[in-house]
Sequence to fold (266 residues):
Amino acid sequence: MSEAVKYEQEGGVVTLTLNEPDTRNALSPAINDAIVEYFARINTDLTVGCVILTGAGEGFSSGGNVKRMQDRNTAAVQKAPVDIRAYYTTGIQRIPLAFNTLDAPIIAAVNGAAIGAGCDLASMCDIRIAGRSAKFGESFARMGLVSGDGGAWYLPKAVGLSKAYEMTFTGDFVDAEEAARIGLVSKVVDDAVLMDEARAMAQRIAAHPVHSIRMSKRLIRDSHHVSLPIALDMAAASQALVQTTHDHKEAVQAFAEKRKPRFEGR
Fold:
């Protein structure tokens, strides 16, 4: 079990907590490895109906570690461009790829700052809930950088192209209320109840049949990249699968008998 990211499961809900508060949960090789490892585990564990991602301490994630940036800019550790490219492709870029193949729904419970790669990390989640103290910043331009972790792909899907350009070009910070206005988060709640609200939503999601929810997520995710006829064909194929599951039959029977269904994940 990783110390960099805490993994806790209660019922059908897994909570992943970025657990390096001394750096405000700046993304690190240990956090990268843990996220990739845990997502692969969740994909094969049908007891997981929903995931919550949050940060330990006072912030969600500060993104890149500025101390490491200072260290790597010293003459002694200067790397060739080809080595820097490999550093990204074998390191942090595994995170957006892991998010793109995560079958279970994931909710970001954004506490405090989500800056740079931390903002991108939040945008990779399916649903985002923010505490009132949350703030977001696509702040790479402030450091003379670009988003190297998939933010240029994920952020426009969350806020639209114009707003993604604005956030990227200005590097301006966005508070929780503005984040809700632009669609970056779906809900703003008091900090004290952030995790309660995230768990309540996750439990509502996890209460549904796991195959239906996971296939629905795939349909929404993948339909954006194909034509309508192909999307409809994928929907028909998914429907053919879920209609043969025990949980679908149980839902229909429970509705007819006016009782609560008992889903078994099969």
Remarks:
- Residues 48 and 77 are 42 Å apart (CA to CA).
- The chain is about 45% helix and 15% strand.
- The first helix runs from residue 29 to 43.
